[in-house]
Specification:
Aspartate Aminotransferase, domain 2, Aspartate Aminotransferase, domain 1, 263 residues, alpha+beta, 9 helices, 4-stranded mixed beta sheet, globular
């Protein structure tokens, strides 16, 4: 919609994020901005990515509460965007939030989202959040710390099981990069993933493949899949286990833990 040309890069196999080295291969004098997602709540190495000196939009849709060196993600780039969709870390039912330290950015966004009372005409959208949604969001925000604690508690249980079983999972590559555990993603070969997913579903426990291969941006843009081998690999070898905050009180959580330990 902005008229920009999307240029995409492959991801790292460990944290599932874009990297400094992959970006370096693609940037040139025409590069206007770098969009850096913190995939599934695991922080990307944005400190190194900032060294390019190119404006950065941090996609924090899944990473509210994640931190780098004890600083919240979304505060490193020029703009941070957050999602408050129903399945995100906190919710307002739908919608989201934008953060920037640059007041000009904020004013431009306000102008773009509010179409009323403008003397100069150009296309704008009616993107305001309702007062009811905002009230819900404030209540949710007050619960954020507890949500994050519950997610961490569940993740620690999964990590222990993975260590016992010798299973791999998505993780940060830097001990100072703290995920919010928006998802807990197992990594294994395709046959194991599909078998485990089916067996859990038969017990009434639904798990999802977090990114199917047909969802990859490289496939949407009809690019050569050989240039995105890590993305293709991850799409075929991952399974997201349940990790919503109230799972700690769910009677099915014990059944899930027992199944994983005995699998």
């Amino acid at each position: 919609m902005s008229g920009a040309k999307p240029v995409i890069v492959d991801i790292d196999k460990i944290d599932f994020n874009i990297t400094y080295n992959e970006i370096k291969k693609k940037i040139n004098e025409k590069t206007k901005v770098i969009i850096v997602p913190h995939t599934f709540g695991v922080p990307a190495d944005i400190i190194n990515i900032k060294k390019f000196g190119i404006p950065i939009i941090e996609d924090c849709a899944q990473s509210l509460g994640s931190k780098i060196n004890n600083i919240h993600v979304g505060l490193f780039g020029d703009i941070g965007i957050y999602s408050f969709y129903a399945s995100k870390v906190i919710t307002t039912g739908n919608g989201g939030m934008l953060f920037s330290k640059n007041l000009e950015n904020i004013e431009n966004v306000k102008d773009y989202r509010d179409f009323d009372g403008r003397k100069i005409y150009y296309p704008r959208f009616n993107f305001q959040m309702t007062d009811i949604q905002a009230a819900m969001g404030i209540i949710q925000l007050n619960k954020l710390n507890q949500f994050l604690k519950n997610r961490k508690r569940i993740a620690e249980i999964y990590i222990k099981i993975c260590q016992e079983k010798g299973w791999n999972f998505q993780k940060s590559k830097n001990k100072n990069f703290i995920p919010n555990w928006y998802r807990f993603v197992l990594k294994a070969d395709t046959d194991f993933i599909l078998r485990l997913k089916g067996d859990l579903l038969n017990l009434g426990i639904k798990c999802i493949i977090p990114i199917e291969d047909w969802e990859l941006l490289s496939n949407y843009l009809k690019l050569n899949s050989n240039d995105f081998k890590n993305s293709e690999f991850i799409a075929k070898s991952t399974l997201s286990l349940p990790i919503f905050p109230d799972l700690v009180k769910d009677k099915n959580f014990k059944k899930l833990k027992d199944v994983l330990r005995n699998y």
